[in-house]
Amino acid sequence: MKVLIVSDSHGKGKLLNQIVERVKADHVIHCGDFCTDEKQLPACSLTVVRGNCDWEQVPMEQIWKRDSLTFFVTHGHRYQVKTTPLPVRYRAQELGAQIACFGHSHFPFCEKVGDVLLINPGSITLPRGFPFPTYAVLTKEKDLLTVTYYKTDGTPTRQRGFKGRLD
């Protein structure tokens, strides 16, 4: 399984579509602040949530399940993610999710906290406190998960990421 995780594209639909075409993931998760009409989002298997800058009436939170994994997806502005990831972790636990995907801070973050893998892909357009725009790709092979961060041109970064099991 291969999942592309993006956030905070802020109206850059062409760039978002280029990344989706390049990665060729089985599923795409957009953690909000897409800032376009919903019909301009990529035509693919997609889970999308509304960010604080979005006007489309998509859900504020979603659960997506695949290959024995449950993903909690939110933008993060309602969970104080600029201060601490713990409220997102607690919400993921309440919902029985092993993975929480969120954005809002425009800062890439990937860490397993307790029994939840927290993933913020950063922003593909407006990084904050990080030298370049990023997105994340999660792959699952058997029970091994890998999260790799990429620059928007497709170059993998050496910063951030995860490799391991969730048990």
UniProtKB/TrEMBL annotation:
Enzyme Commission number(s) from the entry: 3.1.4.-
Cofactor requirement: a divalent metal cation
Listed InterPro entries: Calcineurin-like_PHP_lpxH, Metallo-depent_PP-like, MPP_YfcE, Phosphodiesterase_MJ0936/Vps29
Top-level taxon in the UniProt lineage: Bacteria
Ranges for domain Calcineurin-like phosphoesterase: 1-142
Keywords: Metal-binding
One GO molecular-function entry: hydrolase activity
Keyword Metal-binding found: yes
Signal peptide region: none
Ion transport keyword on record: no
Stored Pfam families: Metallophos_2 (PF12850)
SUPFAM superfamilies xref list: Metallo-dependent phosphatases
Protein family (similarity comment): Belongs to the metallophosphoesterase superfamily. YfcE family.
Protein name per the record: Phosphoesterase
Organism of this sequence: Thermoactinomyces daqus
UniProt lineage: Bacteria, Bacillati, Bacillota, Bacilli, Bacillales
